[in-house]
Amino acid sequence: MADVVRRTAGAVDLLRTVGLLADGPVRWGAHVRSARAGIYLIELPGPLPRAPIDLSPVGTWIERVPTLEVDGSRPTGRDLAHRLAAFWLPDQVVVFIGSTDRSIGRRVDELVHTALGDPLPHPDGRWLATLRGLDQARVWWAETDAPEEYEDAILGAFADAVDPASVAALHDPTVVVPFANMATPTGLPKDHGIAGDLLAAPPESTQPERRVVDLPPGNAVASERPMAPRSRATGGSSRSLRAGGPATAPRGPGRTGSSAPRGTPRRPAAKSTAATRRPEAVHLTPDGLNSLQVELDELVTVRRPEIIARVRAARELGDLSENADYDSARKEQSFAEGRIGQLEAMIRNASIIEAQSGGSEVVLGSTVVVDSAEGEETFTIVGSSEARPGEGRISNTSPLGQALLGRRPGEDVVVRAPGGERQYRIQELR
User: Fold this and answer.
1) Model's pTM, two decimal places?
2) Are the C-beta atoms of residues 123 and 71 closer than 8 Å to each other?
3) Is residue 217 part of a domain?
4) Same domain, 373 and 320
5) By residue range, what is the domain housing residue 69?
6) pLDDT tens figures, 96-126
7) Does residue 359 lie within any of the structural domains?
8) CB 140 within 8 A of CB 23
């Protein structure tokens, strides 16, 4: 196979590469006259050797969003600007590629009018707002009924055009996308280390339209949404694997041009400065943590490359809108990336359960011998992610686990289950 000739990939070239006819351009900030679904690309007049980061909006961004961190620490304006610049591709002019299954014109307007730090009307491509000279940028677009598939194909063509030396210089050379794209269409994110950079989304209207309906007696229907269970102290000795570490952007699985839910209604930008909630700890034994790390390594080093190869091969078969192989490969890719994100979050927020031997009361990690109507049984109290009831490993959030926590040898516990009450007497702790 001939070597790929890498060069600056303009918006028109990228659209033509996947068989789409380019429309436009208009200057950034002008309205795109398209109400159909499709692809849109933001292009600078020419390649720039260095990222034209403007420190003024960067500083304002940090001031507006008190939760913004870089690598877990509060940054200065120069720290944040330096990290953004580490994703600049000096040989390329396209700085953002997005898609929408609704109106291209409306989506671009939403991007233009979303201030740095605001979650609405649409925060995708927010890094664009840190660039000087953005008023000289141009917007190109193409209408299509398969925007997600073509976005994936265009991003693939973009990555193929980037010089390997430019890729090697990136802060994260594993995800090659335009400067302002945060992730691939399947949700594989850049490892940029920037977290908490959006304000909390505003609550829904506190004064919704009310309508009173008279129902005949006995026809009232209770809410089907279950109440969240109250948590109780787990006890035990545990250590945080990475205490207070920032959560990644909720990634996943998302799409490059659509990190906010589709159809999000437009409303005034949020001004809240409420801190983001810390993720809950994931209680794991050392063996459980090792199992998750082994699974993650398998997905990242083996399964991901295999799936990417399948997507690439299926893409070469032709029309993406009616390509069953491509659709199947993309679904598998989406599932794998979702699981990778889940595993990374679990490992990042892991709280290691120290092995318990004996002790005076049941805590997380204890092995408990009980006497019941079934005879003598042995249970080990573990986190929900490691629970395997058939092997005697029960979750601390299960009815039996909750009943045992905090109890001592010789005590009786009663567990109320759908099948009736069951009584256990704690014999010993091992």
Assistant:
1) 0.54
2) no
3) no
4) no
5) 7-199
6) 999 999 999 999 999 999 999 999 999 999 9
7) no
8) yes
